[in-house]
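Try this one yourself first.
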């Protein structure tokens, strides 16, 4: 495949509600969208870097820098052997997986469109539809939290993820469990705790959570293993796992029993698939995480979640849970706790080109 031309754009998109996690909060997203043309098709992808370096060291601006200065000039106009070869000229770049993933995932969309098949089919996924959950940011009162949970349960979401931090954890979750005895809950701490908090995290065992996500440091494996030895609630890693090597270490040490795979965090679909396969071989489940994407990134996540070991509901919620108006047509809707997998070519949803053009605050063209 040959990418003849690429356009990187930044668009602002305001979340309907501020989203707060233990490491920061966001409302006004600055989203990078990438369009790549070649082989008679136009491919779309999204870079999931956030505005500030709290979840990851990457930001909208570092991704812009890496993509425009170091990646796109070297991949546009070059003949590649397919999506797994597109980034070969920039193999030397260390880290910056979110910037790299935007190109790699766009190349998969291009390959799918060239074959006239859906992105899900191109990457080998067959689960249809995909089960989904929702992630609720930190709420300041239990009343607000209970109201939100009741609303999402009524909308059919198959599991509810609650963001926690010290001071908004055990008592808050115990209250939720009492009010909603049968709802599948999980908690995500985004690294808000240390091993010294193990006794408090152990109290969560009584609440029968599906898992606790990334309780400890964003780059730590040993302490997660020590914690997992001491609690029954399965530990799920998010931030810590950015490569196959990270996963190997986590499995060797026993740092987790579940992994949240975000294709942007791990550098694209190829590594996502490798992580998926290794977890499957170990008899451990994975699920697809989210980064408050627009419909373009969401379409890529839906495709990934069709792989067989994505047995747990993902953080892939309806467009209207995030945006007053999404940038794709049709928008994503949740029906019976699932999202339909688009079956048109590539990502299978139409980017709203006019609106994207009107929203664009900066663009860079290659080729
Ligand atoms: O830790 O999973 C996370 C959003 C931004 C950064 C980190 C996380 C999240 C979410 C939201 O939990 C998931 C979504 O896109 O719905
Ligand atoms: Mg997380």
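Now uncover the answer:
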């Amino acid at each position: 495949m040959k990418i003849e031309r690429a356009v990187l754009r930044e668009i602002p998109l305001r979340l309907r509600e501020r989203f707060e996690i233990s490491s920061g909060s966001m409302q006004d997203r600055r989203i990078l969208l990438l369009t790549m043309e070649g082989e008679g098709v136009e491919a779309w992808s999204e870079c999931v870097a956030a505005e500030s370096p709290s979840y990851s060291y990457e930001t909208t601006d570092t991704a812009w820098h890496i993509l425009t200065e170091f990646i796109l000039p070297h991949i546009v106009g070059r003949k590649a052997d397919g999506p797994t070869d597109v980034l070969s000229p920039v193999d030397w770049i260390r880290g910056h997986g979110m910037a790299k993933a935007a190109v790699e995932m766009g190349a998969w969309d291009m390959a799918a469109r060239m074959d006239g098949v859906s992105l899900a089919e191109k990457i080998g996924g067959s689960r249809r539809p995909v089960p989904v959950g929702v992630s609720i940011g930190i709420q300041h009162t239990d009343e607000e939290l209970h109201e939100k949970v009741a609303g999402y349960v009524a909308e059919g979401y198959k599991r509810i993820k609650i963001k926690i931090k010290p001071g908004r954890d055990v008592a808050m979750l115990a209250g939720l469990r009492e009010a909603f005895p049968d709802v599948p809950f999980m908690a995500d701490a985004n690294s808000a705790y240390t091993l010294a908090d193990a006794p408090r995290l152990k109290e969560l065992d009584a609440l029968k959570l599906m898992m606790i996500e990334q309780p400890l440091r964003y780059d730590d494996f040993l302490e997660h293993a020590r914690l997992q030895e001491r609690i029954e609630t399965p530990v799920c890693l998010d931030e810590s796992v950015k490569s196959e090597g990270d996963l190997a270490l986590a499995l060797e040490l026993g740092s987790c029993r579940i992994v949240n795979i975000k294709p942007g965090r791990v550098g694209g679909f190829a590594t996502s698939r490798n992580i998926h396969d290794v977890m499957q071989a170990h008899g451990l489940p994975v699920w697809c995480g989210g980064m408050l994407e627009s419909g373009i990134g969401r379409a890529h996540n839906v495709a990934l979640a069709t792989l067989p070991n994505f047995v747990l509901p993902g953080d892939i919620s309806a467009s209207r849970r995030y945006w007053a108006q999404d940038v794709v047509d049709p928008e994503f809707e949740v029906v019976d706790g699932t999202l339909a997998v688009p079956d048109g070519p590539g990502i299978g949803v139409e980017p709203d080109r006019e609106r994207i053009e009107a929203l664009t605050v900066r663009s860079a063209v290659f080729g």
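Discussion: The chain is about 35% helix and 20% strand. The longest strand covers residues 5-21.
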